[in-house]
Design brief:
By secondary structure, the chain is of the alpha+beta class. The protein contains three helices and two strands.
């Protein structure tokens, strides 16, 4: 699996790009509600894109569990 370069990661994590995608997903202010965070289904580090299809808005606790599981499997 190819890893993303630092410049690719910086581009995909751009606040402006994220705001645009969140507006497309129905969040008019371009940011998730209180207690929620943005999660990339395919991680940016693995060349995941910041697109409407690859972004999920989930609770902070759910996000923490997802990444804890990835760490155990050695994917983060």
């Amino acid at each position: 699996m190819a890893k993303a370069t630092k410049s690719q990661i910086k581009k995909e994590r751009s606040p402006a790009k994220l705001k645009k995608v969140l507006k497309q997903k129905g969040y008019p202010k371009g940011k998730p509600p209180k207690g929620k965070v943005v999660h990339h289904v395919k991680p940016v580090a693995e060349r995941g894109k910041t697109t409407k299809k690859n972004i999920r808005v989930i609770s902070k606790s759910k996000h923490k569990k997802i990444h804890a599981g990835r760490r155990k499997r050695g994917k983060v």
